[in-house]
Design goal:
21% of the residues lie in helices and 28% in strands. It is built from 3 helices and 9 strands; from the N terminus they run E-H-E-H-E-E-E-H-E-E-E-E. The protein has a 6-stranded mixed sheet with strand order 4-3-2-5-6-7, sandwiched between helices. It has a 3-stranded antiparallel sheet with strand order 1-9-8. Strand 2, helix 2 and strand 3 form a beta-alpha-beta unit. The longest helix is centred in the first third of the chain and has 18 residues, at 15-32. The chain binds 1-O-pyrophosphono-5-O-phosphono-alpha-D-ribofuranose, manganese (II) ion and magnesium ion (MG). 1-O-pyrophosphono-5-O-phosphono-alpha-D-ribofuranose is lined by residues 43-46, 71, 101-109, 161. It is found in: Cytoplasm. Its cofactor is Mg(2+).
């Protein structure tokens, strides 16, 4: 099957487990930024679901923005070329910014975006990611808020895709290796 039903794939983290971690991170962020305003910047498209949930778990004043970067493709990962397709809409100078990602893998996307955002001179810049795959890192970068740290497995759901499918799957599930997982 080219695109097997998500229900046939093993659950890595259930929607309940995800909700618990998102609530905990939201609480932590609300404490860390108490009395301040923050800007959540989501990286399209994978981060959309996590950002939507995380934002609603945060009680401090928050606005959204979104960036889009060119996908360098899994097979050409070593080229490391990341290009900005869509920039932020509103200035972030002097603001407290949190970059929001679904997954921190090689680190190429976030290290590029962090460098770019720092040029705008935010008051502070942190990173929140739903998943972290530390063993895949090609460039040194760490997230400040991580829901789950996982070994190298191909996962889908909760915003994460395989050939643009499965982003709307509620749980985070393991893509079988014979389909295209790696
Ligand atoms: C995925 C993921 C992160 C990035 C992480 O995005 O959503 O943005 O790759 O990989 P890295 O740490 O190796 O850079 P993708 O390019 O698949 O685009 P998408 O979010 O639209 O699925
Ligand atoms: Mn992405
Ligand atoms: Mg993708």
């Amino acid at each position: 099957l080219q695109f097997p039903p998500a229900a046939s794939m093993d659950v890595l983290y259930s929607k309940t487990q995800i909700a618990e971690r998102v609530a905990a991170i939201g609480k932590q962020i609300s404490e860390d930024y108490e009395g301040q305003s923050i800007v959540l910047i989501g990286v399209l498209k994978g981060a959309a679901i996590f950002l939507a949930d995380l934002a609603r778990a945060i009680t401090v004043d928050a606005t959204f923005d979104f960036v889009a970067v060119s996908s360098y493709g899994r097979a050409r990962v070593s080229s490391g070329a990341v290009k900005l397709i869509k920039d932020i809409d509103n200035p972030i100078e002097g603001k407290h910014v949190i970059l929001v990602e679904d997954i921190l893998d090689t680190g190429l996307t976030l290290s590029y975006l962090r460098g770019l955002m720092l040029q705008h001179k935010p008051a502070s810049l942190k990173i929140a990611t739903c998943l972290d795959k530390p063993e895949r890192r090609l460039v040194p970068i760490e997230a400040d808020y991580v829901a789950f740290s996982i070994p190298n497995a191909f996962v889908i759901g909760y915003g994460m895709d395989y050939a643009e499918r499965y982003r709307n799957v509620e749980d985070i599930r393991l893509m079988p290796p014979e389909v295209g997982g790696h």
